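Hi R.,

Here are the chain sequences for the assembly we discussed:
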Amino acid sequence: MTLDATDRAIIEALQGGLPLVPTPYAEAAQALDLPEEELIERLQDMKDTGVIRRIAAATNHYKLGMTANGMTVWDVADNRLDELGPQIGALPFVTHCYERPRALPEWPYNLFAMVHGASRDEVEEKRSQITAILGDALRGADILYSTRILKKTGLRLRKKG
Amino acid sequence: MSDLTQSDRDLINLLQEDMPLAHRPFAPLAAQLGISEDALIARIKQLKEDGFLTRFGPFFDVAPMGGAFCLCAMAVPAAEFETILTKVNAHPEVAHNYERTHHLNMWFVLATETPEGIADVAGKIEAETGIKVHCFPKLKEFFIGFKVAA
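And here is the predicted structure of the full complex:
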């Protein structure tokens, strides 16, 4: 999808969130000097093309009690990844699951799965379930706990002249 | 842990679902909950003020616009951590940044408007900090379950 200047202005205006009022699009449209119908139409186009994944709340999972967030990383035999990756991704406690390139020799891991839990014990228990699924395709593993959010923002677009 | 009621938790779960694009987008959910739109909005504001929600609105994805996301990691010496952090976070392309328990202890997501932008920003950060920026672009997505159960 090609974004024109109006689309970019819309993204800039809404990346911090919608106004929390009964008619948020009307209020945002007014600030953008657009008719509300046009704003909604453009947002619908963005949804249809995947530029907008959804319109919803973002949570602070630390505040929700999910204080032990482990980024589990796995060195899985390349020829088994297509078979095993979807099984890990389908686990209910895994929120993101990706194949990523290794950075040898420092970083031998090619599968990343985020595991959320209320305690490290809980995360470790879930991690052992992943270990069991990977079985003999597993060559190495590690887990990285997040200890601090250093920055969290929505998408930021640079202003174009 | 938190002083959320079960009803707050249910609401947080519902608010993570996609909301309609309509003149009065809160109306269907308010009706479902049997409360007024104003009451619903007041509860959302309170959850935001209390820090349980960070944001309410569209989730933009740069890839369909021709842009790119990339997970990056750096091994930052403890003594320099805050100084390096300031330099890294100063880049508007750094969307999320987490401190993690590993030799690679700073993990951030770059969001740029072109795929070339990733290497460009990573290169700038390396030049400014003198620390290698490892880039781990996603090669394949096995699943994203976006919801965090409250």
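Helices of chain A lie at 5-14, 24-32, 36-48, 81-89, 120-134. Chain A touches chain B through 77 residues (CB under 8 Å).

Let me know if anything looks off.

Best,
T.
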